[in-house]
Amino acid sequence: MPDLKLLHDAVLNGDAKVARTVTEEALAAGAEPVRLVQDYMMPAMAEVGRRFESGECFVPELLLSARAMKTALAILRPLLVTTGVPPVGRVIIGTVQGDLHDIGKNLVASVLEGGGFEVIDLGTDVSPEAFLAGVREKKPHIVALSALLTTTMPAMRTTIEALEEAGVRREIKVLVGGAPITQRFSDEIGADGYSDSATGAVRLAHDLLGV
Amino acid sequence: MNAERAIVKTGSTTNCFNRAVLAATRRQALPIAVYPGLALTGAKVSDIVTNPVAQVEAQAALHERYRTSFVLSAMDLSAEAEAFGSAIRFSEGEVPTVTGRLVTDLAGVERLAVPQPGDKRTAVSLEAVRGLRGLSGRPLVLGGCIGPFSLAARLIGVSEAMELTVTEPELMHALLAKSAAFLGAYVRALRDAGADGAIMAEPAAGLLSPNALGAFSSAYIKPIGESVADGHFALILHNCAAKLPHLSAVLASGLRSFHFGAPMDLAAALTKLPSDVVLCGNLDPAGVFCQCSPEQIRVTAADLLAKTSSFSNFVISSGCDLPPGVKLENLDAFYDAVAVQSASPTAAKLN
Question: B231-270, pLDDT tens digit by residue?
């Protein structure tokens, strides 16, 4: 069995190669997938989140840690499913129609994955119809909407309206975020939650699902 | 002497913008506002970014309404990437956006040709500066351009650029060398077109650590600033994501004029700087200018003015570019707040 602290440190330091190697070696030595995730990877991501919020690390480091987490999870996820350990929740995420910016969306998607969520990234310039199709197909617990432009903020409202008109709004929680978004705007359009940071979005997602 | 003061003291010269601010007897205001002028001219965003006449008319209309001390060319942060060859998405009502990645690896960076100032839509900004030069009242004319890291990030992808600063720094430095080579020439072209200065917008760099900001942004801005430091031309560095811990690294650019966004604690930053270094900022464009009522804007602006009232080297501004949807009544409220503060007893401190 490899030293599993190396897995923790690989996620903490954003080293995807080491994360993959240690994960594969641990599995070959008989480690339980759920223990790797819960005892080593998630604590590492929690520490990265703490460092990000306190200004000890920044966006590049957060993205790299999330990538390392994602790399290891890609190996572990199928095993977790077959052993009956589901993800914390399923999230559909996208930047709303008319908006091509993706840094905030990518950041939130990565950190959500690091927090144990299954994330389906619909990309940028996602129409209300595409979000609705995603909801119908993937049955997410959460739909996360991102916008960087003030001119595309209204697309968040129209997306929520489309979900309501289709009768699926009550089945999901809607999170919104992005540079121009405020709590007041979130309340106005009827979203369930708003966060001004990626790490805050993960906390919010956990709170909304009660997990 | 604190670290920030030590950084700024080293070999830097002042400029016309700082002199105008420091000599003013009233609080100066510099909202980054060109697109809101569309409400006065009836043009579209697509006109502003493609037609220098429409751009000058929108800015002239705002200048006429508010009697501003400064006029600006529009912030259009895809123009430089387009000059390099990036694909751009245009629409009638939105500022253009870069799509896709122009380069993905070192070989691509090495093949990348550095464009000339005036290529593609950079010609619009140069021509707009010439047009602004002719406005009545002789306001200071400030051109605009993107910063080297933010341009490099648009060429290679913003998320990717973030990671590459850690995983392949040599690739980012190779790309930054080309980005900065173009921007140096472009800033000098803005000066030659008649600009008294330029606002260089470097938003992506504020997402880096302070050390990385110094290495991947300020180190490339410094020679650009030195190349136009003639005692008159003002290169104003805008970073709308930087926070107080970034201040020293931003100052390492060697510039004397800075413009920060809402995340910066301006009152604290002002205490760390020599009194002849000018800071501008930082009312949130969306959260304040777009989403607040005029009365709320008056209160918010008055609060910032009160916090900074003892600093003559402060210019109240938006924290970033104001989008097209900002209502004129909200801009009116902002200027009202500045006028009220300037007429108050505390304004005497500016003298």
Answer: 999 999 999 999 999 999 999 999 999 999 999 999 999 9
Which DSSP string corresponds to B34-74? SGGGHHHH---HHHHHH-HHHHHHHHHHHHHHH--SEEE--
Q: Which CATH code is given to the segment(s) A5-82?
A: 1.10.1240.10
For residues B161-165, average pLDDT: 96
Q: Which of B108, B114, B46 is nearest to B76 (CA)?
A: B46
Domain layout of chain A by residue ranges: 5-82, 90-209
In whole angstroms, give the CA distance from residue B11 to residue B2. 17
- Chain B 37-76, residues with CB within 8 Å of chain A CB atoms: none
Contact list in A for residue B208 (CB cut-off 8 A) is 58-60
Same fold, A5-82 and A90-209: no
Q: Mean pLDDT check: name the lowest of A196-210, B94-108, B299-313.
A: A196-210
SS (H, E, C) A39-54: HHHHHHHHHHHHHHHC
Q: Does B324 touch chain A (CB under 8 A)?
A: yes
Helix (H/G/I), strand (E/B), else coil: B29: strand
pLDDT at A116: 82
Rounded distance, CA A23 to CA A31, Å?
A: 9
From CA A166, how far away is CA A170, in angstroms rounded? 10
The correct CATH number of A90-209 out of 3.20.20.70, 3.40.50.300, 1.20.1260.10, 3.40.50.280 is 3.40.50.280
User: How far A116 CA sits from the closest chain B CA (Å)?
Assistant: 21
pLDDT per position as a tens digit, B89-115: 998 888 999 999 999 999 999 999 999
Question: Can you tell me the ipTM of this complex?
Answer: 0.90
**Burial category of A86 from C-beta neighbours within 10 Å (exposed 0-12, middle 13-18, buried 19 and up):** exposed
Q: Specify the number of domains making up chain B.
A: 1
Beta strands B278-283; B87-91: pairing state = unpaired
Domain range for B126 is 3-350
Residue A59: name the closest of A107, A121, A119, A105 by CA. A107
Closest-CA distance of chain A to residue B168, Å: 12
Q: Looking at chain B, which residue has its C-alpha nearest residue A65?
A: B163
Supply A135's token pair. 């909801």
Q: Quick one: pLDDT band at residue A78, thresholds 50, 70, 90?
A: confident
Residue A85 to chain B, least CA–CA distance (Å): 31
CATH number reported for the structural domain that contains residue B300 in this entry: 3.20.20.210
Q: Is B230 exposed, middle or buried (0-12, 13-18, 19+ CB in 10 A)?
A: exposed
Distance CA B119, CA A166 (A): 48
Cα–Cα distance for residue pair A37/A52, rounded to 1 Å: 21
How does residue A87 score in pLDDT terms, banded at 50, 70 and 90?
confident
CA distance B142 to B124: 14
CA B20, chain centre distance (Å): 17
Mean of the pLDDT values across residues B30-40? Answer: 96
Whether the CB of B294 is below 8 Å from some CB of chain A: the reply is: no
